[in-house]
Amino acid sequence: MNKALSQVQEKSLLDDTRTFRKLELNYRKNRSQDHSPEIDSLASRFRYEEAKDSYWNPEQFSLLYGTPLWEQATEAQRVKLNQLYWVAYYSQIISAEIATIFFNQTSAAGLYAIEDFRLVCDTMDLESAQERSHINAFKKVGEDFEENVFGERIFTYHMRGPFVETMICHNSNRVKEFWRWIELHAFALLSSDNAFIGCQYFAVRGIRTLNGKLIQHQLGQFYSKHTDKEKEDFLISNVPIPSQLSYCHFLDESFHFNSSTIISHDVLNSLRRPTAFEKWVANRALLGTQADHYHFSTAINGLFWYDPALFPKVYKILRSPLFDMDDRQARQMMVDCFTKETDGLHLSAHSRQTAIDSYRQYLADIDYVSRDNKEMSVMRRNSVAAHLKRNSRELKRFFLKMEAQ
Questions:
Q1: Rounded Cα–Cα distance for residues 217 and 8 (Å)
Q2: What's residue 228's pLDDT?
Q3: Do residues 128 and 99 lie in contact, with contact meaning Cβ atoms separated by under 8 Å?
Q4: What is the torsional sign of CA 131, 132, 135, 137?
Q5: What is the pLDDT of residues 169-208, one digit of tens each?
Q6: What is the pTM of this model?
Q7: To the nearest 10°, the Cα dihedral for 224, 230, 233, 235?
Q8: Which ranges of 150-295 would DSSP assign to H, the alpha helix?
Q9: How far apart are alpha carbons 224 and 236 in whole angstroms?
């Protein structure tokens, strides 16, 4: 660095040659292996009729897998439950990636205000463009599926902005949603004008992406292990297009996780030490992530959805021509699936515990992170017993509400 042109900050990212090279390698490889063209082509070619009879995920990644509904379902119904998982899971990913695009840019603005951070900002530009490709593809497949199978939306939704609850099926109300709106706007302002908070956002993004990586690796394996695929050409493979999209998405997101880790752990060392206020903001954001990931879902293994928010959707599915249950049968099935211990419940609880362990490891060596966040104390308060008690109470309320209408 030219000492005659001294910079305001004491450190420069360019002086940390090891970190800079890690960033540069990740960016260069991501750009050269960008799967957006394949994803866009796959999405444009998707026709539900051509994929309607195939599994899109490993069998255990099916809606209400390991519950009485799954055990009693015909093979044709299991295929639809498997496809429903794909639609539900990637509808959640759309919501997360809408927020990611926005906060990539506000955080890049905060970092670009100091010297030598162009590479970080270029990385965010590339990743945001990839997220737009992912969103378009998932939206296309999900909406085509629901139009053909139900004729209405179940898990998909109209496009939305970044200032809403990221978790689609959550435990909330209008007051909580308004407070969330305020918090997100405040964080956007702070991250766009503060290098540390902008950098710290990638610790939040890192642990959120980490859970996705754990699940999406398994979803991607469905394609990579398929005996009927052409390894070198996505465009001529006979594997269902949604499975190919899962694989391409996992490859892109692996680079995104790498950049989150480098920025939140290594690039952080090129910034001045945070103030007490900056540490407080950083830890509040991490506590918010713990709150978002507090629940686990019997219905959707790998997503931290609040089961009572799923009750209307599941009831609608059970009453649809897909299962053709009457009201009494649908109610009893929901009691059996959501209020009793099942293999599906324990599979979801295990996935959540794996996430907790991984989050603790991810944050262990970041010194500004509070003990509550390093120990994941908020997430650890939930349990299988508490989950079942909550579901039983809320399912009774759901039935009473239906009767009152």
A1: 43
A2: 57
A3: no
A4: negative
A5: 898 888 888 988 999 999 999 999 999 999 999 999 999 9
A6: 0.94
A7: -100
A8: 174-191, 195-224, 241-261, 276-292
A9: 14
- Output the CA–CA distances (angstroms, integers) from residue 160 to 91, 97, 99, 227, 269, in the order listed: 12, 11, 10, 38, 35
Rounded distance between C-alpha atoms, residue 305 and residue 292, angstroms? 9
At 202 the pLDDT is 95
Which residue in the block uniquely carries the two structure tokens 């609040």?
306
Dihedral of alpha carbons 38, 255, 121, 124, sign: positive
Using a 10 angstrom Cβ sphere, with 0-12 exposed, 13-18 middle and 19 or more buried, the burial of residue 111 is buried
Q: Are 165 and 179 in contact, with CB atoms under 8 Å apart?
A: no
Give the relative orientation of helices 241-261 and 195-224 as an angle to the nearest 10 degrees: 150
Check if the beta carbon of residue 163 is closer than 8 Å to that of residue 184: yes
Q: How far is the C-alpha of 378 from the C-alpha of 285, rounded, in Å?
A: 13
- Quick check: 57 and 243 in contact, CB under 8 A? yes
CA gap 61, 239 in Å, rounded: 17
Task: Report the b/e string of 221-255 with b at 16+ CB within 10 A.
Answer: bbbeebeebeeeebeebebbbbbbbbbbbbbbbbb
Task: State the Cα–Cα distance between residues 249 and 101, nearest whole angstrom.
Answer: 15
Ordered by start, the domain boundaries in the chain are: 16-404
pLDDT digits (tens, 9 = 90+) for 25-80: 999 999 999 999 999 999 999 999 999 999 999 999 999 999 999 999 999 999 99
342, 66 Cβ separation under 8 angstroms: yes
